[in-house]
Amino acid sequence: MSRKLIRRRAGFTLIEVLMVAAILALLAAFAVPALMGTGEKARVKLAKAAVGRNGPIAKALDQYRFDVGVYPETDDGLQALYEVPSSLDNEEKWEGPYMDGAYEELQDPWQNEYQYKAPGDFNEKSYDLWSIGPDSDDGTDDDVKNWLER
């Protein structure tokens, strides 16, 4: 046998490393845009669940109406679910609080207050409940509402 040593490769070549980096960059180019919108979609779904007819706010408003006889007035707003409203003529009917926590904690996924109006402009026999959405501007297309557009 000759004295030549067989050289073994100890690492990767530059071309191999660049090929792996290119493949990872290609995968990221497809994956990142797909994942970017999921957080915002999840927030919209949370807001829809909160303002929807079967959501926790709606259930609390319905229980308030069952006890008091009417939905809270617009001026009292959703705070009436936590504290006896000053406009209530018979405070003994109020059996609240109707929601856990504090009123200040009742915020949409974008940290804005939920909007409330009773009787509603769209739900004339009950109330309108909505979130002003991710742009924090009321009356825009991204608002999350408890009514269907007419």
Main-sheet strand order equals 1-2-3
CATH superfamily: Glycoprotein, Type 4 Pilin
Strand fraction band? 5-15%
Q: What sort of overall outline do the alpha carbons produce when their principal axes are compared?
A: elongated
Count of the separate structural domains: 1
Overall helicity: 25-40%
Round the mean pLDDT to the nearest integer and report it.
83
Number of strands: 3
Question: Sheet bearing the most strands, described?
Answer: 3 strands, antiparallel
The structure class reads mainly alpha
- Low-confidence parts: none
Straight-line distance between termini = 92 Å
Radius of gyration: 28 Å
CATH topology: Glycoprotein, Type 4 Pilin
What CATH architecture label applies? 2-Layer Sandwich
Order of helices and strands, N to C? HHHEEE
Classified by CATH, the class is: Alpha Beta
How would you portray this structure in words?
This protein is mostly helical. It has a single domain (40-145), classed as Glycoprotein, Type 4 Pilin, CATH 3.30.700.10. It contains three helices and three strands, in the order H-H-H-E-E-E. It has a three-stranded antiparallel sheet, covered by helices on one side. The longest helix is centred in the first third of the chain and has 23 residues, at 14-36. The chain is elongated and about 105 Å long. 17% of the residues are buried. The model has no long low-confidence stretch (mean pLDDT 83).
